[in-house]
Amino acid sequence: PFLYNFGQKIAPSPLDWFEWVHITGYWFLDKGMKSNDQDGEKRKNGLMQLIEKANNEGKKIVYIGFGSIVVPNPKEMTRNMVEAKEKADFYAIVTKGWSDQ
């Protein structure tokens, strides 16, 4: 199955989606979550600090994911993305995806 963690009001399910594709709504960390993974805890704490900082500053947080994209010049694309992010004045969580290009 494919699960999309955004709301139907943001992007309703297209009529041509298969029955195994679902929009689940947003996902939230459980404040009572326990973990023995120290790196995971550091990431969670860092994320919570970013969310708090963004809220205090009235800024949005945008997820930018590249999935399986292949680009001819990844350094230029990254530079352009950072420049656009700085001009738009928001925080970004960026994942590079599985491709090294």
TrEMBL record:
InterPro entries documented for this protein: Glycosyltransferase_28 (IPR050426)
Protein name in the entry: Uncharacterized protein
The species this protein was found in: Phakopsora pachyrhizi
Transmembrane segments: none
One of the protein's GO biological processes: sterol metabolic process
Highest taxon listed in the record's lineage: Eukaryota
GO MF annotation: an example: UDP-glycosyltransferase activity
